[in-house]
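One thing: could you explain this record?
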Amino acid sequence: MLNIAHPRVAGIVEVIAMSRLHLARVFLVVTALSLFVASLIHFGYLVEGYDDRGAATPEAVIGAVMVVGLVLSWVRPAWGRQALVGALAFGLAGSTLGLVLVFVGVGPQTTPDIIYHVSLVVALVIGLYLAITSEPTTSSI
């Protein structure tokens, strides 16, 4: 039987918990950055032919809310896990709505848009899973 009260085991459990929280932060950063890039593309910057202001603004807002969640997870370490869960859940809700809108014909229905939205939703689900299954911590790492 595994004795989690043993100092070595407790230390390993703490490292695993921090690793999940850290990985959740990585997923949040990558997905938020991708939303900012998608927003710039839909505003008509970076790549021509994919202008869609109806998608650009929500992508920027979702990315910004996710960054606030990330910042809160460091500024208020006791809120770290909750802030990440909230930010990733918000990102997942908005991105799922974007995916549904792509499939029903609102906005661009290009292959890159479909691949992006599906990949984004998968990444957000993984990040959310990692955040939810991480142990609450008072550490800022």
